[in-house]
Amino acid sequence: MGLSLGTVGSAATAIALGLAVYAVVVGALGAVRRDARLQTSARFTALAVFLAATTAIVVMQAALLTDDFSVKYVAEHSRIDSPTWVKVVTMWAALEGSVLLWAWLLTGYTAVLALTTANHALRPWALVVMQVVQVFFLGVVAIVANPFIVLANPPLDGPGANPLLQNHWMMAVHPVLMYLGFVGLTVPFAFAMAALITRRPGTEWMQLTRRWTLAGWGFLTIGKIAGGWWSYEVLGWGGYWAWDPVENVSLMPWLTATAFIHSVQVQERRRMLKSWNLLLIVLTFSLTILGTFLTRSGVVSSVHAFGDGPVGPVFLGFFVFVALGSLGLVAWRWDQVRDRAELDAAVSREGAFLLVNVLFLALTFMVLIGTLFPLVVEAVNGARVTVGAPFFDVVSLPMWMLVLFLMGIGPLLPWRRADHQTLARNLTWMTGGAALAAATGLAFGLREVYPLLTIGLAGWNLVSIGLLLAGAVVPRARLTGRGLGATTWRYAFEQRRKVGSMIVHFGVVVIALGITGSSGYRTDVQLRLPYGERVAFAEYELQAVAPFSERGPGRLSVGVEVAVFEGGRQVDVLRPHINAFGTSSMTVPTAAVRYRPGHDLYLSVAGAVDPSADGVIIRVIRSPLVTWIWIGAVILAFGTVWTLVPARARSVPAIVDAGQRANA
Prior knowledge:
Layout: H1 5-33, H2 36-65, H3 72-77, H4 84-89, H5 95-116, H6 123-144, H7 163-166, H8 174-184, H9 186-197, H10 204-234, H11 245-270, H12 274-295, H13 312-332, H14 334-337, H15 349-381, H16 389-409, H17 420-443, H18 449-480, H19 484-494, H20 496-520, E1 523-530, E2 534-537, E3 540-552, E4 555-566, E5 569-574, E6 577-581, E7 587-590, E8 592-594, E9 599-605, E10 615-624, H21 627-644, H22 654-660
Antiparallel strand pairs: 1-10, 2-3, 3-4, 4-5, 4-6, 6-7, 8-9, 9-10
C-alpha cells in the first residue's frame, strides 16, 4: 500500500521545518564566525526549504483536485462537485491552508533573496532573520495547524469552502496579493535587524531593500483594493469598505509601510530619521503578525476572519517575541541609530515628509484603538460594544485631507529650506487649480465640506504633478532641442523612480475622487418591481422581466432578469441573483452591476424570488464615480511597477541634472 497524500504532505512540512532550523543555526554560526562555507550552506538550504514547502503545496493541491477526503483539510473544506478553480483556492480558504500558503510564500521570498542578493555584510544576518520567521510559520503548519492530518474513516464528500469564497473569482487573486504584500514586508524588516546586529544602521539596508519594500507595499495596496471590489460585488450592500475589524488590521501595516516609504527618502538624502525608520519597519512587521493573530484566533468577528482556531496563542506569543526582541535591539544600538542631523526648516521637503509620517501614525493609532477597544471592554466586564464607521470617519477624514494637502506640496519643496519666491509661485498655481476644481464641484451641486475639500485637493495635486513634470522636462527640452513630447518620454524612462511616484500619486487622486462620489452621493433604495411593469429610478426605468433558476457545478442560482431603460430605450439587462452552494444553508446574494464612468447601477435581490409571485423586491443603488476607484488602482499598480523597473542610463547633460536637484 502506497503512502497517502496526507503522509507525504506532513513529511514535506516536517522536512522543510528541519531544514529551516538547520539554516538558522548554520547561518548564525557562519555570520558570527564569518565562515563563507557555513554562510553558503545556509543560503543553499534556503532553496531546499523552498523546494520542500513547494512539495507540500503541490501535495495539498493534488489532494484537493483529486477529492482525497482522507486528508482532514480536504474533508472539512472541499466538495466533489466544486469547480476546479474553487478547489484550487480552497487551499487558502481556511485557517490551516492559509498558514501553509503564507509559509510557502515566505520560503519563496527567502530563496530568491538568498540566491540573488549580492554578497554584502548584511546578507548573512538578514537571511538568519528571514529563516527564523520561516521556522515559526513552518512550525505552525507542521505542529499546531497541520492541514495534512490523515483521517482513519474519511467521508464520501465534504461540505465545500465557505460560500462567500466560492461566489467570486476574486478569491483566486485577493488573498494571494495580500499575502505577497505581508510576506514581502518581512524583507526590509530582516535587513533592518541585520543592520542593527552588525552596527550598520545607515542607508545601506534601505538601499538593498528599496525594491523589495515597494513590491511588498504594491502587492498589499492592490490586494486591499481587490478586496474592496470583492466586497462590492459579493456582499450585496453596494459598498467596498466598512471599517470591519479585519479590514482595519490589514490597513494598519499599510499605513506604517506607506510612512516608511516616504521617510526613507529623508534618511537617504539628509541622513536623518534613522531611529524613526527602524521603528517604522519594526512596527509594520509587528502589525502584520498582530493582524494575523486577530484574524486567526476567533477574537474578532468578521466575514473576512478565519474563526476560532488553535493558532491564536502561538501567534500572540510570536508577536510579543518580535515586538520585544526588535525594540530591544533598537534600544541596544541606540547610540548608533540616534539622529545627529537636525531639521533646518519646517517648510522643507523633509518637514513635509515628517508631518505626513505623523499623520499616518496617528491614523494607525486611531484604527488600532477603534479596533481593540471593543475587545478590551468585553475582556474587562463582558459587555459587547461596537465602534462603527461613524467614529472612524469623523476621526480619519480631517487627517486624510491633510495627507492630500501635503501630498501635493511636499514633492515641490526643496530639501533643507524652501525658496520663498519659488514656493509662492507654486502655491499660486496650485491654489488656482484647487479653486477651479472646487468651483466645478459647486457648479455640479456639491455643498458638503469634505467632498468639496477632496475635489479641491484633487485639483491641487494635479497642478502639483504638472509643475513637477514641467520643471523637469522643459529645461531638458530647451537644452537638447527636442520636443516636449519626446523629452517627456525620454525622461519617463530615465527617471523611473520620480515618474513612477507621480503616477502613483495620480492614482491616489483618482481613487480619492471615486471614494468621494460613491460614499457621499449614492442613492440606495429598495423597490418592488412587478413583473412586466416599469418602475422609475433616477434617470432609469427598471422592469422585472422574469425569474430564473440555473444550476451550475456545485451551485444553484435563483434570480430575476431586469431590463434597464434610459430615455425610453432599453440599454441593458441585469441578472441579480442568490447563490446556494452544495448542502450549505447559507445563501449569498450576487449583485448585477452596470459599470459606467459617471456612475454604477447596482441591483441586488433583497428578498426571496418566488416564481408564483407577481413581483420581486430589489435593492437598487446608484453609485457615482465608484468605477474610478478600480481605475485608480490600475494606475497606482502601473506606477509601482514603473518605479520598480531599473532606469536607463542617463544621457542628459550634467547641467540639467544639477538644475533639477532641488526638485529631486
